[in-house]
Structures are given as C-alpha cells and as structure tokens.
Amino acid sequence: MPAATRPAPGAAPDTGVPRTVLACGEVRTCLLPAGQALDSRAAAQLLRLRADERVLVSERPNLYGRSPDTLTGVDCPLPSANGARVRAVGTVAARASLTEGRVLQTSAYFTLPASGPDHRRPWGDYLVRPGVVEPLGKLPCDAVAAGLLDGGGHGDLDVGLIAGGLLTRLLRHPLLDQRPPLRSRQTRLRWVALTAPPGEAPALERFTLAEDELRTVRLRVPEDIPAADLAGLCDDLALHDWLLTTLVRVLDGIRLGPAAPGPWPPSAPDGGLPPVVRALRPAVDHLLHLWMPRARVSGELAPLWEALEERPGFTRQWLALVQRVRDQLTLHAIPPVRREVEPAS
Asked: Entry's InterPro entries (predicted)?
C-alpha cells in the first residue's frame, strides 16, 4: 500500500505512525485550449505552479511536462458508505501534467493511515508529511474507500474539487488562445487503492464507466508502493481513456460513408476537402500519435495495464478506431466514380 510521503529535508523521522491502508485521488483530463501544441519551453511556463521548484520536462518517449506538487490543507469529514462520520486533517497533494503539448491533466491525491490521534494536532505536524490525511481515531477503511469512489456528500473531503480548481486555474493561463483544434469533453477518473495481503501482487479490481465523463478505479496494491506512483498509473489510465473517448466521439459526430460525387479535382479555396476529411483531420494531427500506454508507469504497477488490455481491450479498441479513421481518409482520397447516362432516344 502506498507509503507515507517522505518528510521534508531536515525534518525529524516520524516514528510510531500507523501504517497507511488507503490512498485516493482524482484526475481531470482535457484537450489544451490552444490552436498549436505547446513546445517544451511553453509547457514549463504553463506548469510552473511554484517558484521554488522546477517543472519536470522529458522528451522520451514523448514530450511530457509535470509540475511540482502543491499542497492543500483539509479539515473535514471523510465520505463513508455506511454513514460513519470520521473527521480527517492533513494535506492533499496536487500536480499538473501536459502530454505532447496537447493534453492537460491535473491530479489530486492523498493517503490515509489506519488510525490517528483522538484530537487535532498543530498544522506543523501535518505539513512535514505532505499528501497524508489523518483520521481522528480509527479509520473504517472499506466504508471510506466506497464513500470516496461514490464521491461523498456536501462538506465531505472531495479531491475532485482540488483537481478541478487547479485545472480551471491553468485553463485561464495567458499562453492559451482558447482555440482548440477539435471539440472534446473533460473526463474525470476517481481512484482508490487498498492494501494487498503480504506477498500478493498488485491488482486492478475494477474499472467502471460510472457516468458520461466519470470513471472509477479500485486497486489493491502492496503497502510499500508510493502514492505518487499510484497517481502516475492513474494519470496514464485517465490519459488513454480520454483519448479513446474523444476519438469515439469524433467518429460518432460525423456521417461516414463514400465520397459524394462532385467536380474532380476539387477547386474550392480550401481544396474542396470533403466534410469527413475536415472532421477527421484534427484527430489525425493532434491525437493519433499520443497512444503510448505505460510510458511513465512504475515497473511494479505496469502489469496492471494487462487487465485493461484483456477486457475491455483498450489498445485493441484504439487500433480499430484508428483503422476506421484511415479507411475513411483513404476512401475520400479516391476520385468518386461517375457513370455517364446516355439520353433516351
């Protein structure tokens, strides 16, 4: 199970703390509202959430930027499926990432120990353990895990609000011209991870399309998996689920079929591109090259992708959709066949 985040440099080691039994997070994913993809320099400027830490930028196997973590202090009840009222205090970690200068994600997450003190401690005690939220008393782990996946009620801890607030902030950045190349929707992926029994391999127990834009994931992982690695896995799942969802909607939103007869070659100012080609071209330019599962998932968690490849078959569905796009572009690149009808005698 995710271990508590390391103390800040120079902080005394935290001993006697109950082991972490639950981690939770939410990922928001959307198309960057900009006419052109951002290069590495502009990506670093967009993601500079803190002046005291650098943005991580890598170019292999694709262009990727990730912000430093920011912390949000929380003191509120935890969601619970059985109605138990458990107050929790601590900090939620949040970060943002940009893939190929085109897909923006924000992620908020935290871990929970099995129990905490019976009274609230000074804020300094929580700040030396970033990304850890402590319950006051014993944690009803299964009930809270179910409550977190359901989203909780008004006033309960909601990491989605933190991830969504960060996304809203970034979408207003002056670098963005608010002219996305295609229509798309934001998606949310909410996840929980519980402790696996000793010696048991990580497992993806459930992946659910809960609503039109909401997905839920339930994991079972060893205790020593860092929460940041879990967040990285779920960022990757959210990215590729968003790509699938967006490409499906692009194809569903156009009328596919053979090219309509007309003058050939086209002579219109825009080249006379058929409507299907005009609709599909942004997906080809901006989406098709982004499919790269597990590119930045830790080695211990990478095998969890196999469950999604088997059922529902992420990559299999993606390849089928890409082939449909290519078939339509090929079909509309072929001059339409015209039959001359002789006038009746």
From this structure: SCO2521-like
